[in-house]
Design brief:
This protein is of the alpha/beta class and 229 residues long. The chain has a single domain, classed as Alanine racemase (TIM Barrel), CATH 3.20.20.10. The chain is built from nine helices and eight strands. An eight-stranded parallel beta sheet has the order 7-6-5-4-3-2-1-8. β3, α4 and β4 form a beta-alpha-beta unit. The longest helix has 20 residues. The structure holds pyridoxal-5'-phosphate (PLP). Pyridoxal-5'-phosphate binds next to β8. Pyridoxal 5'-phosphate (PLP)-binding protein, which is involved in PLP homeostasis. GO terms for molecular function: pyridoxal phosphate binding.
């Protein structure tokens, strides 16, 4: 249980020229590790599990910006709606509607990123471009019904492979989708500006392809041991 402050500083320096934000992914790691990185100046933390995130949020400083980055079930939105800042992996209209409903109960606006399926693997969640277009058409034509959510961009995960060319091409594809959507359904919408791509293994490629938010865990907090969780 030790955070890597050298890696933290190095990553911040690498992000600087791209004006990209760091989401420190603290899933499975204890609150003390988050506190230690908080002391070093980090404010944005990402979690994948609802219960773990609510438990940590309750014991950590109130000015932490919590990002939910994992697959979110509609019936669990209510637990994080009081405090979550951004939800990265919105993959259906139904989920967006539930987020809006729960955010409204707390008179909040929750930032949402739409998850795009770019990887080869069957297991990764997300929508294809057509599904995203449909969702955006619905939302933009009923804007009043979605006033407690703000669609701020897209999120994706590349295939878990050593083939850099493949990873880069998947990120590139995502950036193209982002640009097309921004120019069609979201014309003039300045909220739609984030591209959440890049993890410990591939964030340098993601930055080259226009990432504005990298989600980094193991480089900062060390390898995760799921058997203890
Ligand atoms: C765990 C996780 C990350 C961070 O992964 P690392 O390889 O540890 O940097 C990023 N994004 C998502 C969606 C994750 O689940």
């Amino acid at each position: 249980m030790a955070i890597n402050l050298e890696a933290y500083k190095k990553i911040l320096e690498e992000l600087e020229p791209f004006h990209a934000k760091l989401v420190a992914v603290s899933k499975t790691k204890p609150a003390e590790d988050i506190s230690a990185l908080y002391e070093a100046g980090q404010r944005i933390f990402g979690e994948n599990y609802v219960q773990e995130m609510t438990e940590k949020q309750a014991q950590l400083p109130a000015d932490i910006e919590w990002h939910f980055i994992g697959h979110l079930q509609s019936n669990k939105v209510k637990y994080i709606a009081p405090f979550v800042h951004t939800i990265h992996a919105v993959d259906s209209l139904k989920l967006l509607q539930e987020i809006n409903k729960q955010a409204a109960k707390h008179q909040r606006v929750i930032n949402c990123l739409l998850q795009v399926h770019i990887a080869d693997e069957e297991t990764k969640f997300g929508m294809d471009e057509k599904e995203i277009e449909e969702l955006l058409r619905t939302v933009t034509t009923n804007a009043n019904a979605y006033s407690n959510t703000k669609i701020v961009g897209l999120m994706g995960m590349a295939t878990n492979t050593d083939d850099n060319a493949q990873v880069q091409s998947e990120f590139h594809q995502l950036h193209d989708i982002f640009t097309r959507l921004a120019n069609t359904y979201l014309q003039g919408n300045t909220d739609f500006k984030e591209l959440s791509i890049g993890m410990s293994a591939d964030y340098p490629l993601a930055l080259k392809e226009g990432s504005t938010m990298v989600r980094i865990g193991s480089l900062l907090f060390g390898k995760r041991n799921y058997s203890q969780n």
